[in-house]
Amino acid sequence: MTFQYKNVFINDTYTIVGPYEYQGPLGSYFDAHKKDFYVKQKTFEDAESKLLIDSVKGVLKKVKKTISDVDLFISGDLMNQIISSNYAASQLGIPYLGIYSACASSVEGLIIASNMIEKQQIKNCICSVSSHNNSAEKQFRYPVEYGGPKPKTTTFTTTGGASAFLSSEKTNIKIESATIGRVNDFGITDAYHMGAVMAPACADTLYRHLQDLGRDISYYDMVYSGDLGAYGKDILKEYMKKTYNIELKNYEDSATMIFDLKRQPVNAGGSGPACLPLVTYGYLFHQMKEKQLKKILIIATGALMSATAVNQKKTIPSIAHAISLEVFE
Amino acid sequence: MTFQYKNVFINDTYTIVGPYEYQGPLGSYFDAHKKDFYVKQKTFEDAESKLLIDSVKGVLKKVKKTISDVDLFISGDLMNQIISSNYAASQLGIPYLGIYSACASSVEGLIIASNMIEKQQIKNCICSVSSHNNSAEKQFRYPVEYGGPKPKTTTFTTTGGASAFLSSEKTNIKIESATIGRVNDFGITDAYHMGAVMAPACADTLYRHLQDLGRDISYYDMVYSGDLGAYGKDILKEYMKKTYNIELKNYEDSATMIFDLKRQPVNAGGSGPACLPLVTYGYLFHQMKEKQLKKILIIATGALMSATAVNQKKTIPSIAHAISLEVFE
After folding, report:
1. Which of B44, B81, B308 to mutate to test the interface with A (most CBs of A within 10 A)?
2. ipTM above 0.90, yes or no
3. How many Å apart are CA A138 and CA A154, to the nearest integer?
4. CA neighbor of B165 nearest in space, from B4, B31, B256, B271
5. CATH number of the domain where residue B153 is located
6. Does one domain contain both B161 and B180?
7. Using one digit for the tens of pLDDT, what is the confidence trace for A32-74?
8. Does chain A have fewer CB atoms within 10 Å around its N or its C terminus?
């Protein structure tokens, strides 16, 4: 399902990250960073919610608005029952839609908001996501304190909060179109190889986006997925070539951008709902403002995994949602 | 945030329930029922997803459409990472938005779909939810097999799947308006008294809905919440009277409608994302088609609880979303 927009703009964004992301190659592009994983909270779960709240307050300050100016807050995260988002929404008091599509949640939120703003059903919206390495590891696999070794295909959940303020007020980043993805399931049960799980969903959404709009991949200066990781990225390239005969040259994955895979202990790269929006709102928007990039396609990919389902030996389905961003002049 | 619609209709619905719901006072109003909790699946989780899929296929049959006719599937449930919905979406292959606002998910889905249909961004949408007594009890409290006693304020998660097919094609049930709620938190930590947790969110959304549209409560033939339960219902009435000076006379709660509280072992009544839509799509739509009811307001309430947060002694926030339905003549 693909939409095109004429009146939707990202007025500003705010990104706040943990120590690993700050030490990564894009560290200087984030608005704020924290030195530890607790962020002065008692639990990792509270720390994640705090990062989310800080990112909302941060973007409000940048657009010079207050909470009462905001029509809608859309947020999602990886925690069971999306509690990071729920507790953030509770503190903020803005009308709230909770969403879940794992690491594709950021773009799901942007699409719901864009559709409402395009038709003036709301005047503005804050779209947020968060993730936290320790809260996610604890919930989906093992507490990081156990120090268990991991396969090289594993990604490292990013720690951070990312918020975007959307309205019909014209600024230099325009949301131009979007595609809602379908759930794919290629029968993979390996919870340590999310890139393999998500690559087919990414391919499906990318192909349908191009088909629906009658576009060639070269329409975009760059296509960014997030977060397939070092191995998933290659799977996607091969899959796109073999299945659709599309050569992915103008393509990169946020998992391999946010961290230095040679220097940092992150295996196949970054992941988590925050990974792609941190890279997009931090680094890519900077490149767009500098006119280094003018038209980009962002494909957020989510592995719809649950610890319960993994223990029941179920396959892991995946989804991907895409949104195209343009420099507005 | 309140919206009004002119072009959104619920063309048909499908409800499928477990044994307790079928044995309840509204049993004859559901489209289908299952005799046990496994529904020929290996796990309760798979059983829940099966009920969800059956409800989607059921409504498709009733509106004489196939999966390829459907633009969008919006679904949510109580399972961690909404796996019931994800596995359903995986089998269906319709573009999919996963949502979460606990037992308020049904109305969240209807609102997102209505906004898109109203402005012709999509031509139709299936909105679904599911819940399952045994999968929910296991995840949020203890496996039912333990047979632990419970306080009287506890509700009994309904087992079922409920789907609605929405489009701009005129039929006799019109979605007239809707209000997206805010998260409320009154500091309650008792995971066995959801009615107390959710009543303030219900009151807030009801009040703002009436304020935003300049309506008196008497505008509606009936207001239905779901699912505050026997105790929460009284809390809501008292709270509305004391806080807003609104007397709730034309009001009922789905938790106390779906079960016979005197005869069935359900404590304070039914709950789960399926409870309110089962009552609405099953019984209330029948009443509307018979012209016994012409204008109703449906307020879905959700306790944004997670086992992790409860164990960390966090308070339980809540949310409520409202939608008004009218007989279209």
Report:
1. B81
2. yes
3. 15
4. B31
5. 3.40.47.40
6. no
7. 999 999 999 999 999 999 999 999 999 999 999 999 999 999 9
8. C
